[in-house]
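Tip: read the tokens left to right.
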């Protein structure tokens, strides 16, 4: 059954997803839901986002995926409320090892908690856990757990400073 679902997504779903008008967010989200994605309200996918297994993705309310983002969901990916995955960012739940002759050696889920932002061209690897309110700086590499309400950058991403929200008490 999984192979049939994957075949249908690869042959029909991806084509219908990409061949949509620029602002057809509701249509693309409905198509992803049809293929098993669980999502809240006002979830937006740009039409050139690459999604390989929508049935392994859970996105809560007000989540946005930017242009050319790659979502490799071999294992579950859970994204909280009010999150952004910016353009060219990659969420990868499967990682191979060059020493293992092409065999996959790591398949783990990814968790991105509420109010987080994965900035442009960042790479989130299997097993990563981005806690609430984290900003992952552009071109960062996320390999593990990032502490809540912080700004993290680098390779691998590390906490650089606290994230302060002005006007809140």
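Filled-in amino acids:
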């Amino acid at each position: 059954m999984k192979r049939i679902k994957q075949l249908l997504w690869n042959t029909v779903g991806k084509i219908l997803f990409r061949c949509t008008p620029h602002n057809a967010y509701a249509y693309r989200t409905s198509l992803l839901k049809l293929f098993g994605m669980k999502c809240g309200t006002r979830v937006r996918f740009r039409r050139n986002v690459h999604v390989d297994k929508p049935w392994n993705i859970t996105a809560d309310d007000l989540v946005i995926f930017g242009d050319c983002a790659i979502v490799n969901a071999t294992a579950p990916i859970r994204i909280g409320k009010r999150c952004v995955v910016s353009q060219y960012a990659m969420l990868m739940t499967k990682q191979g090892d060059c020493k293992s002759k092409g065999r996959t050696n790591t398949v783990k889920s990814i968790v991105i908690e509420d109010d987080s932002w994965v900035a442009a061209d960042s790479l989130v690897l299997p097993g990563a856990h981005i806690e609430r309110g984290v900003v992952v700086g552009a071109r960062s590499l996320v390999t593990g757990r990032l502490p809540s309400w912080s700004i993290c950058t680098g390779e691998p991403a590390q906490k650089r400073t606290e994230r302060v929200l002005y006007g809140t008490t």
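Residues 36 and 159 are 35 Å apart (CA to CA). The first strand starts at residue 38 and ends at 39.
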